[in-house]
Queue: 2 jobs
Job 1
Amino acid sequence: MLEIRNLHASVDGNPILKGIDLTINRGEIHAIMGPNGSGKSTLAKVLAGHPSYEVTKGQVLYEGKNLLEMAPDERAREGIFMAFQYPIEVPGVSNAQFLRLAYNEKRKHLGEEELDPLEFKDLLKERAKVVEMDASFMTRSVNEGFSGGEKKRNEILQMAVLEPRLAILDETDSGLDIDALRIVAGGVNLLHNSENAVVLVTHYQRLLNYIVPDYVHVLAGGRIAREGGKELALELEEKGYDWITSSVAASGIGASRVT
Amino acid sequence: MSTAENLVSQEYKYGFVTDIESDTIPRGLSEETVRLISEKKNEPEWMLGFRLKAFRHWLTMTEPKHWPNLTYPEINYQDMIYYSAPKQKALKANLDEVDPELLKTFEKLGIPLQEQKQLAGVAVDAVFDSVSVATTYKEKLKKHGVIFCSFSEAIREYPDLVRKYLGTVVPTNDNFFAALNSAVFSDGSFCFIPKGVRCPMELSTYFRINNSESGQFERTLIVAEEGSYVSYLEGCTAPKFDKNQLHAAVVELVALDDAQIKYSTVQNWYAGDEEGRGGIYNFVTKRGKCAGHNSKISWTQVETGSAITWKYPSCILLGDNSIGEFYSVALTNHAQQADTGTKMIHLGKNTRSTIISKGIAAGKSNNSYRGLVKVMPKAENSRNYTQCDSMLIGSNSGANTFPYIEVMNNSSAVEHEASTSKISEEQLFYLQQRGISQEDAVSLIINGFCKDVFLQLPMEFAVEAQRLLGMKLEGSVG
Ligand SMILES: Nc1ncnc2c1ncn2[C@@H]1O[C@H](COP(=O)(O)OP(=O)(O)OP(=O)(O)O)[C@@H](O)[C@H]1O
Ligand SMILES: [Mg+2]
């Protein structure tokens, strides 16, 4: 579904991603871990098409198409979804209004009939159950005045409505209380199936108890420094990142061919 | 972070010119011109007297060029035509007799004048250059005692009412542009809602400038007697010309005891091109007097057009417990300039006023809010709340806020909040990441920003206003 090859990206002329290779297939769950500043959010935003990030090298194929040529909204309509580490507020625009517009854009793209506000309301009510969100959030402005945890939950509500093929969740677990974590993780599991893929960016192994990844990748200094199965997360939990980052420095493990 | 720019505006779709024969007087302005206009309109002596007094006063006044935050070339008042009317005899009683070209023009503007084609519940007075060409639903309204007609007709048919109220809110010598208007105004609308009547439909006037050489000087007078209610809408467009046209209107509202007037405007005069060539110079005096106790006047404006906007719809809160409101969205793009706001003058006890202003500046435009809140010594226990938000799109536009606050007693309170924001790249990216195109994302953000004002507009107008803002900013961020 997604094939990232030797991806380099910079922001404001500063190189951040320095050669990422990653392949994601349908039905898979990938976890991306790594120290602060290692480039996890950068990778997510590059895949989503954030205009501030410049891809300087490499390529990304999504369903066989050159992803990097597509505008961010096009990528979204093609099924790429990113849950933001810091969700954005949109004053004066209700959650329901925003979601209906987004949902209908996707329907239009698929050549399906748009839903009117009443039909959409029913759908929204149904999907809100996935993250156990109260109806009162639907009439409030997007993320405005939401608590940190509510914002994160709202991201997953959007995912539930848009049903992406590739969902990249950037630290959706940070800031969630224990119950909310369980609910959000349950929601993601409910939405995951053999036709789609999920990428979880996280610092905590705890999330991976709820959403079990097929692969774990550790990012350090803009490269994938280590890859493994779910055990790798446990190992990280125990040892911290030092042993990886220092061994990267020492042996260059994981650093894709430096040119 | 680099905030988005690159402004491109959608074609102005009302920019066409109607080819019609006009009765036009020679350019230039003198006492002779004033007499000629009055004569053309067959006016009574008192009306000519009103005009001449205004004109003589105007000669002693100077254009307010210094305090507004606007720059524009000298206006040559002698190089303008002060009266231009489509050639047809007197105002038609019957629509069938109205020149089909005119009907077509208004139809093209989305304002069909045939009653059966109109939005149910909205009566229209259609003003083309200097004259009113048709007023719909007059008969139906008359049954309720509501008078809705062109100003010319009002002078002929209801001289006592007009004399009683004309110039009582905006005196002839109020300001340079109001004096000019009082001298040369050609037509406009007159509404009278008698005691206790809730006007059964929305009243509206649609103004169309067609002649590239003529100014438009219209006058609106709305009187709401005790306990009555009226909602009035105003719309306007003009063709695209390379030259500028002057529009200097006066609107007077009078609300007696317990009466309510809701006045909504969607202003979409031609704004000039991207370089600032052409467009309307819009210098307008709008003022409402809450003359009676418990009366209420509410202004809602969505200003999107004109090269220059100079406009401060105001309320004089004379009656005890009276209420004044001002809800405004002013959008400027390219080289447009707007200096707009309101004045709330509290004279009566327990008077209240609310000001919500949303300014949006894109391109290299300049958008200023200017507002005065004045609480006089006798206006005990009065309140004002002002919220003034500006949004900048791109980095070449400017927004300013000029609040003037004078409170002359101890029991009153005035609250002022202001903010300036930018459409951020992050906001746009967030919406785009959900599959919303950049253009739709911009209009969603803008409409969200303006929501508190749009909520005040009548339904059809709100939809129109949202569409208009989206259109004006289409492709504006990239
Ligand atoms: N505009 C910028 N200019 C310079 N450096 C930047 C800019 N934006 C991001 N960076 C840097 O890029 C690096 C990667 O940031 P990124 O947000 O991808 O990290 P992360 O792995 O998601 O970290 P965290 O775990 O803290 O969320 C950081 O060192 C950050 O400071
Ligand atoms: Mg991050």
Job 2
Amino acid sequence: MQSTLTLSVSNLLIERAERLLCKDLSFEIHAGEIVHIVGENGAGKSSLLKVIAGVLSPLEGELFFAGERITAHRDVLQAQLCYLGHLAGVKSSFTVIENLALHFPAATEVQILAALRSVNIEKYATTPAYQLSAGQQKRIGLARLWLTNKKVWLLDEPFTALDTKGVTVLEEKLQQHAELGGMTLLTTHQKLNSTLHARELSLDS
Amino acid sequence: MTYLSFLKSELLAVFYRKQDTINALAFFLIVITLFPLGVNPSADFLEPAAGGIVWCAASLAILLSVESLFKEDFNDGSLEQLIASGLYLPITILIKLVIQWCAVIVPLLLLIPLFSQMLFLPWSIVHVLIFTLLLGSPALFLVGTIGAALTVSLKRGAVLVLLIILPFYLPVIIFATGAISAAQAGQDYSGQLAILGAISLLSLALSPGMSAVSIKASMN
Ligand SMILES: Nc1ncnc2c1ncn2[C@@H]1O[C@H](COP(=O)(O)OP(=O)(O)O)[C@@H](O)[C@H]1O
Ligand SMILES: [Mg+2]
């Protein structure tokens, strides 16, 4: 069963604002893998994640997930997807708990508080998000990783604005996710801990 | 994310953004009070003009409130999350819209009896005005949503929204005010109401899908 959990991308061509970001990009990610997309600013890392998540459309190429073609309709993938973009959709007027309740209607308050404790913002559970620092707001988005049971994580620069302790905690979470058979595709400009065994995927031509 | 949790969070968002709704209503109130002062405060002039004044003010207030329907969601990444959530986008747009409609139109309808007195609209006509608003305003919201979706990624899209959708507002305004004048002249106005309802139904069929396509196109 686990071996079928593969995300594959073949001959992808992404163009944005009349600029070719990637051409003939092909790769596969299997269950338990962490793939680190590298490339300079503007190389198209965020765009690639958006294309996989279904936010943008590729110009050419195919995507497959769990043996099914998902190029036109991402439903099969989206049912297993946790996508955290640059801005993770944190509503500034909502409290921290309200922000998470949108994504996890079935989660109990105890579960949400436990997730908040993991990312160290438990004290701010009922504080409106706009009253938190940039790093704390980032943690609201990241707390979703502790609540989700989705297998495919697409994380766009999850480490920005995090302190060193936060980075360690997140790296541990990524490792745990990989051990449980999940796959992660992430972008970051920082060096990942070697224990994660992240595979690098370069977008620079 | 489920449809229900999305609905709840939208209700919460409208509650937190209640100032926007109040602004739209205040705008409506200002137009209605300034108009008689600027033109002619006599009952002779206002009574036949009342329907037109209320409808113009309502159209502008609605335009104001739908223009920024997706702005905040676009800027904080919620729109991306919504697209990636796997929920059917037209339905979520419709949910958003129904909530927005209730937030603006319900208080407006409650205030209408007061406004119609300010404009010397006879009591026997007030219910016609309310019918036209109930049947015609959904079309204004639905059409406005397409404009808001088309311009969501533009920094200053408000004027563009206006230019794109104002032509589609005209038939609604014409038939709504037509129904009110007919009622004032003691004629049958059910035809105009039926057309208003038809325009709203047509917009209901077209708008969510077109808005979803426009939003997806705007993400590029
Ligand atoms: N909203 C946008 N509209 C048009 N072009 C964009 C937009 N966002 C990014 N781009 C273009 O796409 C390219 C890749 O951007 P992005 O994927 O964000 O890069 P990265 O994440 O690798 O730094 C950039 O060169 C930029 O010019
Ligand atoms: Mg980026």
